[in-house]
Design brief:
Blueprint: E1 9-13, H1 19-32, E2 37-42, H2 49-54, E3 61-66, E4 71-74, H3 80-85, E5 89-92, H4 99-114, E6 123-127, H5 129-134, H6 140-148, E7 155-159, H7 165-168, E8 173-176
Parallel strand pairs: 1-7, 1-8, 2-3, 2-6, 4-5, 6-7
């Protein structure tokens, strides 16, 4: 490894835009110094600009994405306006995510956990892990396993809204992205190259 003597735990959370962008910025910075980076993107299918670019990068960057071609939400939480507006939305009883989705995510988590102690990467980014936790696709025990057994020289990065306090308490750096204004509220759809 080219890397870090002491890796920290970082969190990018909040309702504002820029969590994944910040994490990928960190990844590209580390790659510039010859470090090995692994990114596991939850809730995504690998169709974003960062995924297109990551396929062109050298072998020091590995990105896996584990999502489904639909969005999930708790039936008692999603506003009626979103139910009408969001395509491919699957409403679930609170605490009961789709079994196929959970199993797919679990297979990636098991693989990560089985190889965790090897410390083969300098930076490990779990993008949207907080959302995967919120929707019951992964368990807090799995995240705590990664935190408790984090190799000394590995930087561990979490992104996503709704960060649980248990994780925040263990982090060395916590950045909250706060939305002050967003074009989506004014009817501007997500734009290729800027928002995805």
């Amino acid at each position: 490894m080219s890397g870090l003597k002491k890796g920290l735990i970082e969190i990018y959370t909040g309702d504002g835009k820029g969590k994944t962008t910040a994490a990928f910025g960190l990844a590209f910075r580390a790659l510039g110094w010859g470090m090995k980076v692994y990114i596991l993107q939850f809730m995504k299918l690998g169709t974003y600009g960062e995924n297109r670019m990551s396929r062109k990068m050298d072998g020091n960057l590995e990105v896996d994405y584990v999502g489904m071609p639909y969005f999930i939400g708790w039936e008692d939480e999603v506003p009626e306006s979103d139910i009408k507006r969001v395509k491919n939305l699957v409403l679930c009883k609170r605490g009961v995510p789709p079994a196929e989705y959970r199993e797919k995510v679990q297979s990636y988590m098991r693989n990560l956990m089985e190889n965790w102690d090897k410390g083969e990467r300098d930076i490990v980014i779990l993008d949207e892990v907080n959302v995967a936790l919120y929707y019951g696709l992964i368990d807090m025990e799995q995240v705590m396993y990664l935190i408790d057994r984090k190799p000394e020289n590995v930087e561990l990065v979490f992104t996503g809204r709704r960060i649980p306090e248990e994780i925040t308490e263990r982090a060395d750096l916590v950045t909250e992205m706060k939305e002050i204004r967003h074009p989506y509220s004014a009817g501007v759809s997500a734009r290729r190259g800027v928002d995805f």
